[in-house]
Amino acid sequence: MTETASRGQTLRQLGPTVYLPSAVYSIGQGAVAPVIVLTATGLGASPAAAAVVAGLLGLGQISGSLPAGVLISRAGERRTMLLAAGLAVPALVACMLAPNVLVLGAAVMLFGVCFSAWGLSRLSYLTEAVRPELRARAMSTLGGVGRIGTFGGPFLGAGAMHLAGLDGAYLVAITAVSLAALVLVISPPVPHDRAPVPGAERPGLFTIIRAHRHTLRTLGSGVLLVGALRSSRQIIVPLWGASLGLDPATIGLIYGVSGGIDMLLFYPAGKIMDRFGRRWAAVPAMTLLGLAHLLLPLAGNAWGLAAAALLMGFGNGFSAGLVMTLGADASPSVGRAEFLGAWRLCSDLGQGGGPLLIGAVTAVASLTAAALTMGGAGLLAAGLLYRWIKPRQLYG
């Protein structure tokens, strides 16, 4: 990773200002994600209510996308990230000390809003900080370090919980978010990471959305399905393992190996997109995810489930940075942050809707029907992305 980026920076030089704080922040999210349900049940919530509380993390991300885009446009990326971290710490403290489920739910949702603002700020910065021919590698690396942090967070949280109970996971997250903010503060400022000139004319959020409604309606539909497929694999693999009667340790091992494959592919995925075009990663990624879901009903034992999960890992790995790259490609120079907020909303809606679709189809029909439905969605996503991604084009 020695390619020279614009403004005289290389991807490696972006590490201290972009990748390191993002990885550390993601550790915090990864540490708390598995324990939200446990905290809710510990406060007396039923399993269904605890699942709703956990879902508020995604709802916070969805509701934070558009406001975050407006805030970035007016305050700049750096200030938005510091504000997000500054609100995330008390949100995590509230999760840890919540006296009831209502307070916990509100704190979880606030943390989701903060995570959305943080991630969108990094996307907005990288869109302008690197040359178009390096964009996919920059975005896939950002997605990769986030996945590494999210993968490692639960292990750090588990170690802390061994010493301090559930509070240990929240303490890990508080420490990670605080360290990420500290790294951001001590890192040298970047030229465009400043608030716009006061009094400058800015297009409104809905003006930007109307101006780019065709892109959001067409390519955004494909991105929505990408989000649904990504969230589906997190739900359907454990559910299928449970239906086979596998013990939790085996299911966790299968899911972990799949996640490991996923993490290893982020940079090759970006390089493929930069060298051959976005289609060459997007279409195979969604095809593999779709086929893996379609093959899932044939998995009658742990080995079959492991094969399907590994195929999902390959597919998801090849999509690393895809949504961010496509959003950066399509974003306008004027109103960029607002557009990216709307773009991220498309993906977040898919990520939130995927588990709901699986639950609805399973309730009405069966888990097999849910797997086949998501498999069809994967193939549809591949078709939409092939149709609407321009072949071998670099974007400025």
Automatic annotation (TrEMBL):
Lipid bilayer topology: Multi-pass membrane protein
Subcellular location field: Cell membrane
Domain Major facilitator superfamily (MFS) profile, first and last residues per copy: 14-393
Coiled coil: none
Database matches in Gene3D superfamilies: MFS general substrate transporter like domains (1.20.1250.20)
InterPro entries listed in its UniProt record: MFS, MFS_dom, MFS_trans_sf, MFS_Transporters, Sugar_transporter_CS
Cellular component per GO, a single term: plasma membrane
Transmembrane segments: 80-99, 105-125, 145-164, 170-190, 249-267, 357-386
GO molecular function per UniProt: transmembrane transporter activity
Domain of life of the native organism: Bacteria
Keywords attached to this entry: Cell membrane, Membrane, Transmembrane, Transmembrane helix, Transport
PANTHER family assigned to the protein according to its UniProt record, in alphabetical order: INTEGRAL MEMBRANE TRANSPORT PROTEIN, RESISTANCE PROTEIN MDTM, PUTATIVE-RELATED-RELATED
Protein name per the record: Transporter
Provenance organism: Actinoplanes utahensis
